[in-house]
Amino acid sequence: MSSETLKIPQATAKRLPLYYRFLKNLHSAGKLRVSSAELSEAVKVDSATIRRDFSYFGALGKKGYGYNVDYLLSFFRKTLDQDELTKVALVGVGNLGTALLNYNFLKNNNTKISVAFDIDEAKIGSTMSGVTIYHMDDMEKVLEELGISIAILTVPAPYAQSITDRLAKANVKGILNFTPARLTVPATMRVHHIDLAVELQSLVYFLKHYGVNEVEEIEE
Ligand SMILES: NC(=O)c1ccc[n+]([C@@H]2O[C@H](COP(=O)([O-])OP(=O)(O)OC[C@H]3O[C@@H](n4cnc5c(N)ncnc54)[C@H](O)[C@@H]3O)[C@@H](O)[C@H]2O)c1
């Protein structure tokens, strides 16, 4: 079953990387099976939600046995395209961009920042964590050469929209937007916003109004 043929709810899809990471740890520890209760405790998602999530892709745990770790892991690897390396571009190598470059996602999955862009002459032509930083003037050309269709945006907010327009023309399909700018994109493009200030405010709000245990239910 591939990610193209399988349509699962978005809320479920968002939890898959979480499940995947935990299952990988279990697998390395030599565990063969896992119960939904154990999973629930580890990933902090209630077990009814886990059972429902897993039922979408036909992994029905057996009572008293739980789920087969190998089966789930190979399923997730395929669904999340972990067998292939997905190359990603980083636009803006400042404080946040540098932190992301140093981290570079490889510990958890096969997504990697392969190239970076900036306008700062002092950075252009240098490499950081093995990734070359190119001038923005060369962005379209380099993206096409490398066949990259995902970009992480870590530039100052006022530049975010014009860069997004260029990325759209360069056939980029997905943007992980760390800037506070709300982006307008064509229908063929998907943007995920990561706004740390909003996340923090929302955590404070949920703690205040719902306490600690009900948070996951509300996210559903
Ligand atoms: N630093 C954080 O912890 C943090 C957290 C959340 C969100 N953000 C957001 O991420 C973005 C970047 O923040 P930062 O702290 O890394 O800023 P920064 O000023 O350290 O870095 C911005 C980088 O973008 C480059 N740049 C500027 N204009 C550009 C352009 N037109 N094209 C390409 N590159 C360009 C700069 O040369 C610089 O390297 C901002 O929108 C900020 O609001 C930052």
From TrEMBL:
Key words, A-Z: Cytoplasm, DNA-binding, NAD, Repressor, Transcription, Transcription regulation
Sites where the protein binds NAD(+): G92, V93, G94, N95, L96, G97
Domain CoA-binding: 81-182
Keyword NAD in record: yes
MF annotations from Gene Ontology: DNA binding; DNA-binding transcription factor activity
Locations listed in the record: Cytoplasm
Coiled coil: none
Cellular component per GO, a single term: cytoplasm
SMART domains for the chain: CoA_binding
Keyword Transferase set for record: no
Chief subcellular location: cytoplasm
DNA-binding region: 18-57
Source domain of life: Bacteria
InterPro entries in the record: CoA-bd (IPR003781), NAD(P)-bd_dom_sf (IPR036291), Rex_bacilli-type (IPR058203), Rex_DNA-bd_C_dom (IPR009718), Tscrpt_rep_Rex (IPR022876), WH-like_DNA-bd_sf (IPR036388), WH_DNA-bd_sf (IPR036390)
GO terms (BP aspect): negative regulation of DNA-templated transcription; response to redox state
Family indicated by similarity: Belongs to the transcriptional regulatory Rex family.
Assembly description: Homodimer.
NCBIfam families for the chain: PRK05472.1-3 (NF003989), PRK05472.1-5 (NF003991), PRK05472.2-3 (NF003994), PRK05472.2-4 (NF003995), PRK05472.2-5 (NF003996)
Purpose of the protein: Modulates transcription in response to changes in cellular NADH/NAD(+) redox state.
Full protein name: Redox-sensing transcriptional repressor Rex
Lineage of the organism: Bacteria, Bacillati, Bacillota, Bacilli, Bacillales
